[in-house]
Amino acid sequence: MNLALKYGLLITLVVVVWVLVTHLLVPLAPESQANVLAPILFNLAAIVAIYLGIKSRTDETTGITFKEGIKTGLGISLVYAISTSLFFFILFLIVGPTLMANEPLAPTIPCGK
Question: pLDDT tens, 9-39?
């Protein structure tokens, strides 16, 4: 399996699990302090996955060039961005705007009426 696909989908899995747990299984109130964990968890998962992807590409004898490392990291990030966007698009089609209404900053944003 391609490294970018493997590690990009791993980050997406973390996002999917967080969203499903916090919105469907154990709903969090918009004013909950646990909402601070989401960006920390997403960024930490991305950093760890990119690190592991570059590390698994590195050969023990010759190493890896800077260009190869950048290409690997960008590939992982691209797969993560596309797959997460696709997940949220499908979720929005299925659940609808009610999911967005439960977001922490939703009460402060005008609804366009």
Answer: 999 999 999 888 887 777 777 677 777 888 8
Q: Which three-class secondary structure state does DSSP give residue 100?
A: helix
SS3 letters across 8-67:
HHHHHHHHHHHHHHHHHHCCCCCCCHHHHHHHHHHHHHHHHHHHHHHHHHCECCCECCHH
Give the separation between CA 105 and CA 29, rounded to whole angstroms. 11
Q: Give the per-residue pLDDT at 94.
A: 84
Measure Cα distances from 110 to 37, 96, 105, 106, 113 in Å: 25, 18, 11, 8, 8
**How much is the pTM?**
0.79
